[in-house]
Structures are given as structure tokens and as C-alpha cells.
What we know:
This protein is of the alpha/beta class. It has a domain at 28-155 and 196-239: Rossmann fold. It contains ten helices and seven strands. The chain has helices at 6-25, 30-39, 61-69, 82-89, 104-109, 130-140, 158-178, 182-194, 198-207, 242-247; strands at 51-55, 74-79, 97-101, 115-121, 141-152, 210-217, 226-233. The chain has a seven-stranded mixed beta sheet with strand order 3-2-1-4-5-7-6, with helices on both faces. The structure holds S-adenosylmethionine.
Amino acid sequence: MTLLRDHDLARAFDHAARTYDSLTALNPGYRTDLLRSARRLQLPHGGAGLRILDLGCGTGSSTRALLRAAPHARITAVDASAGMLRRALAKPWPGHVRFQHLTAEEVALREEEPYDAVFAAYPFRNVTDPDGLLAAVRTMLRPGGRLAVHEYSLSGSAAHRALWTAVCQGVIVPAGTLSGDRALYRHLWRSVLDFDTAPAFTARLTDAGFTGVRVAPVAGWQTGIVHTFLARNASQGAEGTESTAVGGAA
Ligand SMILES: C[S@@+](CC[C@H](N)C(=O)[O-])C[C@H]1O[C@@H](n2cnc3c(N)ncnc32)[C@H](O)[C@@H]1O
């Protein structure tokens, strides 16, 4: 099947936004795992003084996880789907959280002060050019800034691949079909099978110039299916300058 991309994907999310929160609530661990990944950013002092970007925030579940992990940070949350954003905006948020209708690629083109950290929960599998998006994320992050990617990325074992297909065929696609979003939930199934395995995405991050790349599993049934990828934006120029940039001293 052809995967949904760009405009078609955004329209599919616009439609699915009505039922997105209730369907993800049926997934045990969906929100706990997002919080686990957000906490893995290990942002100091509750994020005080930091600016964080939530890339592909959807209805705000990942934004809520970031807010819990870093309650004092200034958070900008962006998404390509107006429908998903409307759901996010209907929820109560403190004044230091803002939402914008932008694609990840558009964020990179804006000449803004770079972010201290980027959290990306599920956009990478959905874009045509993940390397282009990784390069864009490097321009959005300050040197030494932190990246956490929370993504469906299979371990590489046949058992995890088979479990993913069984859960999609038995639960996720039928539930999505009932809500009128069969194409999106079939896209979810197939896009995970097509996307990088966890070792391949780790290598992709390193090839993109990120440093200190690590991968960690989530808990529960999604172990081996969803991973957190952690990395830092290398400094421009020589590798050896990174510690200076992180410390901010010269
Ligand atoms: C599976 S949802 C996850 C939403 C949210 N991060 C969460 O954890 O619940 C993926 C979101 O990524 C958004 N998305 C996909 N490609 C994007 C892009 N290129 N730029 C911005 N958002 C994108 C979609 O519109 C969708 O809302």
C-alpha cells in the first residue's frame, strides 16, 4: 500500500482528531511511555530558563508529557494538522505553552533563537525525508542541545514484527475503521513495518551529526516496538568543541 504523506497525511489526522484521544487511551502505556521519554531528556531544574520544541504535538499528549517532565520550561508545540491542534488548544494550558500550526520543515525555516531541546513523538516515521528532517532539527537546536525521539521503531526481531502486525490487524485497524479512519490506521501499521529498525535509526542519527546517541526501550507490550532515541546536537566544527558549547563557557 502507498503510505500517506504531507497534505494527505495532515487531512487524515484532521479527520482522526475527533477520536484520537479516546483511541490512544485504549493503548495501555501510551501516555506513561511519552512521559518516560520526556523525562529521559533529563532537563535540569524542571526546565527553568529553557525553551523546548514539541515537534508533531498532535492533540497535546506529548506536550502534556513535556510539561510534566519540565514544568518551568517555555514550550512551543507545532503540528501540521489543524484538526489535531484544535483538540490540543481546547485543553487547559499554562501561559508558557504555545501552539502553532506549522510543519516541522517550516519551523526550521524560521529564523528564531535555537531551542535547548526538541521532543519528537512520532513525526519521523511519517515524513518522506527523515534525513532532511534530522538536518532541520539540528538547525533548530542550539549546539549541545538535546533531542529525544519517541517513535515506533522495531527492534529487528521477527517476534516484535509479528506482534506489531497481530495488534494492528486484531485491534488498531478494526478500531480505526469503526471511527472512519481506516486509511490512517493502515498507514500506521505499514509505516512502522517500513521504517528504520531501532539500530538503523540510531545509525541515522549518528550519520546526521548528532553525538552521544543512545536508544532505550519503553515498558509493557510496546517493548521492542517503541523506543526513545536520545542525542545531542554536536557543535559546529570540530567534535572536540562540544563540551565547551554545552557548558556555555569559552
Ligand atoms: C501519531 S501523532 C502523535 C501526536 C503526539 N506527538 C502524541 O504523542 O500524541 C503524529 C503527529 O505528527 C504530525 N506530523 C506528521 N508529520 C509532520 C510534519 N512534517 N510536521 C509537523 N507535524 C507532523 C501529525 O499531524 C500528527 O499530529
